[in-house]
Design a protein that fits this description.
It is built from eleven helices and nine strands. It has 238 residues and is of the alpha/beta class.
Length: 238
């Protein structure tokens, strides 16, 4: 909404045969604010996922780690006190905390994904209180930190990316840690754009073919297998 009208990106010709898989994508993927502006297509959805938290079942006494779990385990449980890590990115952590604060009745919040100033303050005050009580051990800001904190058991639970859990299990053994099937998740998606400079360098043929590959079954299959990510053409991935 800022860079496209400023000329940083070029519109994508979705009728171009080199990006034929565009037509197979549901409108819920491609006609979004991330992909369109002023009636033009600027972005192609690549991958998406819904983030929750990674945890050690053995340390937390979780008998069935594949069963639905509550964020109470992360934010309120005595089993996790002092062994919790939170992503320090506000956009990544505030909405899941806001959802928990709302459903646990600790503050009146309308939309956890679009906090009003007073609602954001209530969520921040909740976090500050939990930190002062010793509930949070630390905060992380990178993928490597996520892997390290969970892998060496400095923490038993943390909100993190799903690939971090896969990486820990490569080191610690299959199913040592799990990624939670939780009562709510943080949804996200990645979109690719074409920089105007790339178009000026006559790179559109390679770019269109690459974008089409990002929508293919092979690409989605690799992403699902290696990272647990979804995409717009999961039927082709299967």
């Amino acid at each position: 909404r800022i860079l496209a009208p400023a000329g940083a990106y070029v519109p994508i010709d979705v009728d171009d045969p080199r990006i034929a898989l565009w037509k197979t994508i549901p409108d819920t993927y491609k006609l979004t604010a991330d992909c369109t502006y002023d009636g033009k297509i600027y972005g192609v959805p690549i991958v998406n996922n819904a983030d929750s938290f990674g945890f050690w079942p053995s340390e937390l006494g979780v008998s069935d780690p594949k069963a639905p779990l509550s964020w109470e385990l992360m934010f309120e449980s005595d089993k996790t006190k002092g062994r919790v890590a939170l992503d320090k990115s506000v956009t990544y952590s505030m909405s899941v905390m806001a959802q928990w604060v709302k459903q646990s009745g600790q503050a009146q919040i309308d939309n956890p994904a679009d906090l009003k100033p007073e609602e954001a303050k209530a969520v921040a005050d909740y976090l500050i209180g939990k930190k002062r009580s010793g509930h949070f051990r630390t905060f992380h800001s990178s993928f490597d930190e996520q892997v390290s904190l969970l892998g060496n058991k400095e923490v038993y639970i943390q909100n993190c990316w799903e690939p971090a859990v896969h990486e820990v299990n490569k080191q610690q053994g299959k199913d040592a840690v799990y990624y939670a099937f939780a009562e709510f998740h943080l949804k996200w998606g990645d979109v690719s754009y074409i920089p105007s400079q790339a178009a000026q360098r006559d790179k559109l043929d390679a770019i269109y073919r690459r974008l089409n590959y990002f929508l293919s079954g092979e690409y989605h299959a690799f992403q699902a297998r290696d990272r647990g990510y979804g995409g717009a053409n999961m039927d082709l991935a299967l």
